[in-house]
Amino acid sequence: MTTLIKESDLIQSLADAVQFISYYHPADYIQHLARAYEREQSPSAKDAIAQILTNSRMSALGKRPMCQDTGVVNVFLKVGMNVRFDSQRSLQEICDEGVRQGYLNPDNPLRASVLDDPIFARKNTRDNTPCIINVELVPGDRVEVGVAAKGGGSENKSRFAMLNPSESIVDWVVEQLPQMGAGWCPPGILGIGVGGTAEKAMLMAKQSLMEEIDMFELLERGPQTKLEEMRVEIYNRVNALGIGAQGLGGLTTVLDVKIHTFPTHAASKPVAMIPNCAATRHVDFVLDGSGPAVLTPPSIDIWPDVEWAPDYNKSKPVNLDTLTAEEVASWKPGETLLLSGKVLTGRDAAHKRIQTMLAAGEALPVDFTNRVIYYVGPVDPVNDEAVGPAGPTTATRMDSFTDMMLGQTGLISMIGKGERGPKAIESIKQHKSAYLMAVGGAAYLVSKAIQTAKVVGFEDLGMEAIYEFEVKDMPVTVAVDSEGVSVHNTGPAHWRQLIKEIPIVAS
To answer: How confident is the model over 388-415, as a mean pLDDT?
Structure first.
């Protein structure tokens, strides 16, 4: 018997799904993150996890995105061979329409991050289409759909290798993690695909991230298969690296490790690894011809009793409007600050345009003298919001522009997420500047510190325009000080040694 799936049902279900996952973490992620919070001994990492958990609950209650990077939409379709779609459009066109409607929802507009022409024009499509779809024909009379929104910070840290058959998968994974830095916003999940061909391994790694997180249960009962043994070994060895939440050093870098396998050529061992970040977002549903899917929100009771708030006893207040280079040079690595006053924003496209203008001798639209820049591309505001969720983007993407900004514009400090590379750190040291880190995965929480927002340059760049935010008690950590000391180097090194000395920490 043939099942007829209406085009409108798939479109509505996808539109609902991308909204749903923008503000609801999967329950299993919250439960595992809450356990990580309870056992965390690193003050910096514990504070970061507290911000992520607080942000997650706020997003669920406020129905606003947990992260400003609302991701590229991945749609996985298992289509029963007894299914027929009531449509004259392709599946790609149908899915794109669902994504378009979901992202342009006026009650909760999501950030459009997809650029057409990835090489040259790189022009924003403004509705986050096209999405990435994968279709599998299976026996049956229904359609199983998985929807995930994958942010650029974690997607950019994907890894692939063609290992020799005798080489260790575990060793390769553990070798990759320190090279990935913290731009993928740990703690998260590692998805690993082994076998098949290059493209099959990458697909399996992505699909494995849709599975339920069950590492806590696996550790309690013990592994029962060789694959489970490998998952546990990778989990323990990665966490023993001491990278920790946001790369600040701590006990939990990954909450789970998922592995999918497929037969492969005798000469090959393709291995792919894709991390999921602190904004892990996915949902599954089934269409059987009876109408659009109904998505059930997680119970608010699953969130732990954790409510982050500014701590004036532990954090130093900073007035950005009177900030001087001398004050910036006095900040210490790992020191927490609460920023108030006016901050400028800018990310990849804005920095590139600034570079072009400076090279041509043109005046910039704003004066950066003694100012701080925040690497962010915010979500559009709704109702009485000054700005939508506005968490930091990966700072290393701006490394190549750092010396230019510090040496030619009068800029004295920067805010982003994750670590800085050697060249950026050297420039920060040379110019006696500092790099401040905000917590990735706490975008809605951070946005509450923003009192006003206005575009002051490059309006045509959309979310990549230069804004001026007025902030009140915006939480940041001094990640690189004026002497070039990086907490993303010192923190993990310290906790890696502690973990060796305290065996219970690694489990």
So the answer is: 98
Residue with tokens 């659009």: 292
Quick count: other Cβ atoms within 10 Å of Cβ 6? Answer: 15
Task: Reply yes or no on whether the pLDDT at 212 is more than 90.
Answer: yes
User: For 300, which DSSP code?
Assistant: G
Choose among 3, 4, 27: nearest CA to 283.
27
Backbone angles phi, psi at 387, to 5 degrees: -160, 155
Residue 62 near residue 23, CB atoms below 8 Å: yes
pLDDT at 272: 98
- β pairing state of 143-150 and 132-138: unpaired
**Nearest in space to 17 (alpha carbons), one of 68, 58, 77:** 77
Structure tokens at 450: 């923003």
- SS3 for 326-377 is HHHHHCCCCCEEEEEEEEEECCHHHHHHHHHHHHCCCCCCCCCCCCEEECCC
Q: Please name the residues in contact with 484: beta carbons below 8 A apart, sequence gap of 6 or more.
A: 425, 426, 428, 429
- Which residue is associated with the tokens 């013990």? 222
Domain ranges of the chain: 1-150+282-288, 152-278, 316-491
What is residue 502's predicted lDDT score, i.e. its pLDDT? 75
Q: Are 405 and 354 in contact (CB under 8 A)?
A: yes
CB 315 within 8 A of CB 338: yes
Exposure class string for 255-271: b at 16+ Cβ within 10 A, else e: bbbbbbeeebeeebbbb
Residues, the chain: 507
End-to-end C-alpha distance for the chain, whole angstroms: 51
Query: How many angstroms separate the CA atoms of 193 and 38, rounded?
Result: 31
Residues in a beta bridge with 192: 259, 273
Enumerate residues 6+ apart whose C-beta is below 8 A from 289.
Answer: 3, 4, 5, 6, 141, 142
503 confidence band (pLDDT: 50, 70, 90): low
- Mean pLDDT calculated for residue range 415-420: 97
Nearest of 88, 440, 100, 128 to residue 276 by alpha carbon = 440
Q: Of 304, 353, 329, give the one whose Cα is nearest residue 31.
A: 304
Q: What is 249-278 written as a DSSP string?
A: S-S-SEEEEEEEEEEE-TT-EEEEEEEE-T
Please give the structure tokens belonging to residue 336: 């927490």
**Domain 316-491 class, CATH top level:** alpha beta
Q: How far apart are the C-alpha atoms of 183 and 243, rounded to whole Å? A: 12
Report the distance separating Cα 490 and Cα 333, nearest Å.
Answer: 9
- What is the rounded CA–CA span in Å between residue 278 and residue 29? 9
